[in-house]
Amino acid sequence: MDFKEINEAAEGYRKDMIQFLRDLVKIPGESAEEGAKMDRAKAEMQKLGFDKIEVDPQGNLLGYMGTGKKLIAFDGHMDTVGIGEMSNWEFDPYDGYETDTEIGGRGTSDQEGGIVSAIYGAKIMKDLGLLNEKYTALVTVTVQEEDCDGLCWQYIIKEDGIRPEFVVSTEPTDGGIYRGQRGRMEIKVDVKGVSCHGSAPERGDNAIYKMADILQDVRALNNNGDTESTVIKGLVRMLDEKYNPEWKEARFLGKGTVTASQIFHSSPSRCAVADGCTVSLDRRMTAGETWESCLEEIRNLPAVKKYGDDVVVSMYDYDRPSYTGLTYPIECYFPTWVIPEEHGVTKALMETHRNLYGEERLGSKETIDMRKARPLLDKWTFSTNGVSIMGRNGIPCIGFGPGAEAQAHAPNEKTWKDDLVRCAAVYAALPTVYCENN
Fold first, then answer.
1. How many independent structural domains does the chain possess?
2. Crossing angle of helices 14-25/417-437, nearest 10°?
3. Do 99 and 195 sit in the same domain of this protein?
4. How far is CA 266 from CA 54, 180, 187, 193, 272, in A?
5. Co-location of 195 and 313 in the same domain
6. Is-contact 227 220, C-beta < 8 A?
7. Are residue 196 and residue 177 in the same domain, yes or no?
8. Which of 256, 306, 314, 361 has the most beta carbons within 10 angstroms of its beta carbon?
9. What confidence category does residue 384 fall into, taking pLDDT thresholds of 50, 70 and 90?
10. pLDDT tens for residues 294-326?
11. Which residues pair with 167 in a beta bridge?
C-alpha cells in the first residue's frame, strides 16, 4: 500500500470536503431535527458512488463501500446542539466563515467534520483500489447523539442487525488517537415532605431542607478522599487497587464525578412549606463503576438513609422521537468503555498514523504546541456513541477525528481544513492495515 498516494488522494479532495462541510453548516439540525442534513449527506454519498445507501427507520444513514467479509465502520453523528446565547457568537453560526486554514460554524468540530472525512475516506478506498474481498467499509451518519449518546447504535445493532468488526468514532480528537472515555448516567433523587402554611413551618416537613442535607453528602462523595476514617469515601477511591480491580484503566480515564445539575420542587404556594423536591445528578463513571454501583452509593449516603422511604433514587429514561417519528426508549445510562493498548484495532490505527504522519499529533499553527504536548494515544473527556458500541455491546471502538474537543458545544465553533484531509487519509488506509495484521 502506497501511503504517499493515499495522502495525495486526500489532498486532492480538499476543496470538495470543505464545500461539503460548508453546506452542512448552513442547515440547522439539532437532535431529532436533523432530517435535512441527512438528505445532504445522502446526496454526497450518491455523488461519490457508494455501493449501497440505506436510511433505517430511526433515520440513521448507512453508506457501504465494497462487499468484503469484515465490516469496518466509521461513525459520526449529524445532529448538533443549539447555538445558545447568540451574543456570544462573533459570526452567524449557521452561515459560518472560512479562512485559508479554518472553517467556522455550529457542528464543524462536533462533529460534521468527521462525517465529511469518513465519506471521503471511503471514496479514496474505492479510487485507489483498496477495497477487496477482506472488508467492506460502512460509514454511519447517525442521529440524536447530543440528546442520548449511543441510542442510534443501540438501534443499529439490535434492530438493523448490524455488528461491525470494529468502529472508528470520528468525534474530534485534537489530532490524537483515543481509546476510551468515562461513562455517564443521569440519576434522579425524589424527596417527599408534608406541606403546611409558611407562618408555622414546624407543622410540616420541608422537602427542600431534606434535599439540602442529601446534597451536602453528594458534594462530599465528589470531593472527599478515601482514608479509613472518612465516613463518606470520595469517588477517588476507584483509582486505588484496594477498591477497584480495574484501577489501572480508571487512572488512565480519570476518576468519576458527580454533581447536581437540576433542581425542582412542589409546593401549594410561595407561602407554604415545600412537599416535594427533586434533583438531577450528572454522574461520570470511570472503569469499574456500573449503573447499579452508582445508584447504590447514593442510596447509602447517610442523609438518604436517614430519611428512609421519603427518598427514592432512580435513573432517568429517554423516549424522545427521532426526526422520522420513531421512538426507541432507553435508560439514561452511557457505560464507560476502554479498548486496550495492545488490542489489534489500537495497534492498526497507531501503525496507520505512524506510516502517514509519524508518532506525534499534528495540527495547525494555532494548535500544534498544545497537541504535541499530549500523548498520541489518549482518551476523551466527554461521552460518545462508543458508550453503546463498546460499552453496551462489546464491539471494539476507537477514536480519531478532525477538530477539537474544546470546540464542542462552544460559541464560535470551528475546525481546521488540514484535519479533514489527514483524517480522510487515515480512514482510507486503516482497513487495509488492520486486515493485513488480523
1. 2
2. 110
3. no
4. 47, 40, 19, 9, 10
5. yes
6. no
7. no
8. 256
9. very high
10. 999 999 999 999 999 999 999 999 999 999 999
11. 73, 397
Tell me the percentage of the chain whose pLDDT exceeds 70.
Answer: 100
Residue 396 domain boundaries? 3-182+336-437
Secondary structure E strands in 174-222:
177-181, 183-192
Chain centroid to CA 38: 19
Residue for cell digits 420542587? 265
> Residue 229: its pLDDT value, please?
80
CATH number of 174's domain: 3.40.630.10
How far apart are alpha carbons 227 and 5 in whole angstroms? 57
Burial class (CB in 10 A: 0-12, 13-18, 19+), 116: buried
Is 33 among the residues known to form the active site? no
Q: Take residue 178 and report the three cell numbers written for it.
A: 483515543
Query: 407 pLDDT exceeds 90?
Result: yes
Catalytic residue from among 44, 145, 249, 275: 145
Mean pLDDT of the chain: 97
Residue that terminates a domain, selected from 318, 353, 379: 318
C-alpha cell at 431: 482497513
Indicate the burial class of 62 (C-beta count within 10 angstroms; 0-12, 13-18, 19 or more): buried
Residue 357: pLDDT band by 50, 70, 90 thresholds? very high
Read off the pLDDT band of 18 (50, 70, 90).
Answer: very high
CATH of the domain at 241: 3.30.70.360
In DSSP terms, 314 is beta-bridged to 188
Task: Using alpha carbons, select from 21, 110, 33 the residue that is nearest to residue 410.
Answer: 110
| Cα angle, residue 345 at apex, residues 341 and 346 outer, rounded to 5° | 30
**238 neighbors 288 (Cβ within 8 angstroms):** yes
Which one from 44, 79, 112, 378 is the annotated catalytic residue? Answer: 79
User: Cα 185–114–282 angle (5° rounding)?
Assistant: 15
Residue-wise pLDDT tens digits, 194-221: 999 999 999 999 999 999 999 999 999 9
Determine which helix (DSSP H) or strand (DSSP E) holds 76, and give its type and residue range: strand 70-77
Residue 142 pLDDT > 90 = yes
Reduce the DSSP state of residue 420 to 3 states and report it.
Answer: helix
Q: How far is CA 110 from CA 114, 383, 409, in A?
A: 8, 12, 7
Same structural domain, 145 and 202: no
> For residue 106, what pLDDT is reported?
98
- Going by pLDDT thresholds of 50, 70 and 90, the confidence category of residue 416 is very high
Residue 79 appears among annotated catalytic residues = yes
Residues 274 and 146 grouped into a single domain:
no
Q: What is the mean pLDDT of residues 99-113?
A: 97
